[in-house]
């Protein structure tokens, strides 16, 4: 829920007439920066609370960044939905500019976050060694120990009495946030779309977390022949989440134009919330960029290409046909 707020208000803050770059890219960079730091301090986060580690990476970073809105911006440039006086070549350049600049900024922010995370990890390890010389620094926890800690906590989730205090506090905070968002929906009409987006965002984030179980385990090469071998290690769960969320956003985008049914004020709130909340949280760039950077170059390029090529046809056939055939500019939400 915090991720939705950060993304929505950062985008609004950096969206203004004459902006040098589209506002959404700042949210993408912030989310990727936090993700970079979290990947370098995972041992610390897991020892404090495995729920905190999942909440920061899958929850916060995955919700601050969004793959579907990025692809929508690319589509809008390719198809010149604002009907500016551009040639087709200029439209192509606009789409490629959004595509490449977002990817470059996201990777750069991720690397910067990893540098900061390394410094935090080293500083925390130094502090622990001074505080207790017999205690190994958390920065030196090996993979086996880390997996064992995570497995123990997962077994504990079957019983409330085995939850850690930090897990209980985070769960209580989440419940309070959901209740607060529900109250704001009925009270504050000026922020109603954002409040509804917070509720829809929980559903999108949970769905993406469940789909993550389909991702291949990093570092484990899977055998196969031909195309199956080439695609064996691709993060299937993230790919499905990004493509499915983008497909839903394409439908929502057309409905917002009023081309099918003239939207009422209430339906506009819901459609906006679906776009910012559900689609924005179901899809993610932060996880996508991490996966691209850890895969081998050939598979990374294939994964990125499949993700983009599989997404754009939904905007093409759902929204593109409308914008190329509509003779009237319908009011939008």
From TrEMBL:
Keywords: Cell membrane, Membrane, Transmembrane, Transmembrane helix. The keyword DNA-binding does not apply. The keyword Nucleus does not apply. One of its GO terms (cellular component) is plasma membrane. The chain crosses the membrane at residues 20-39, 51-72, 92-112, 168-188, 194-211, 232-255, 275-295, 302-323. Signal peptide: none annotated. Belongs to the fluoride channel Fluc/FEX (TC 1.A.43) family. Fluoride channel required for the rapid expulsion of cytoplasmic fluoride. This is Fluoride ion transporter CrcB. It comes from Coemansia biformis.
């Amino acid at each position: 829920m915090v991720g939705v707020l950060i993304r929505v208000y950062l985008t609004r803050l950096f969206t203004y007439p004459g902006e040098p770059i589209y506002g959404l890219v700042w949210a993408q960079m912030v989310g990727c920066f936090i993700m970079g730091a979290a990947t370098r301090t995972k041992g610390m986060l897991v020892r404090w609370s495995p729920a905190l580690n999942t909440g920061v990476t899958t929850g916060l970073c995955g919700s601050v960044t969004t793959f579907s809105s990025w692809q929508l911006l690319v589509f809008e440039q390719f198809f010149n939905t604002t009907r500016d006086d551009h040639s087709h070549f200029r439209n192509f350049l606009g789409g490629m500019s959004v595509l490449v600049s977002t990817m470059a900024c996201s990777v750069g922010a991720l690397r910067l976050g990893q540098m900061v995370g390394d410094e935090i990890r080293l500083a925390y390890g130094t502090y622990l060694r001074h505080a207790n010389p017999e205690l190994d620094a958390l920065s030196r926890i090996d993979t086996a120990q880390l997996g064992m800690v995570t497995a123990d906590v997962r077994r504990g989730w079957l019983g409330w009495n085995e939850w850690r205090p930090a897990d209980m506090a985070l769960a209580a905070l989440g419940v309070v946030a959901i209740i607060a968002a529900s109250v704001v929906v009925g009270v504050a009409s000026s922020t109603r779309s954002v409040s509804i987006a917070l509720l829809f965002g929980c559903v999108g984030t949970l769905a993406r977390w469940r789909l993550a179980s389909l991702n291949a385990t990093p570092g484990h090469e899977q055998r196969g022949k031909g195309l199956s071998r080439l695609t064996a290690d691709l993060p299937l769960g993230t790919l499905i989440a990004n493509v499915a969320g983008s497909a839903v956003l394409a439908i929502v985008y057309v409905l917002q134009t009023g081309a099918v049914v003239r939207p009422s004020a209430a339906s506009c709130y819901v459609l906006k919330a679906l776009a910012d909340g559900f689609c924005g949280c179901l899809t993610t760039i932060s996880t996508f960029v991490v996966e691209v950077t850890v895969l081998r170059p050939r598979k990374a390029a294939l994964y990125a290409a499949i993700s983009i090529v599989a997404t754009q046809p939904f905007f093409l056939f759902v929204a593109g046909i409308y914008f190329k055939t509509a003779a009237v500019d319908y009011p939008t939400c």
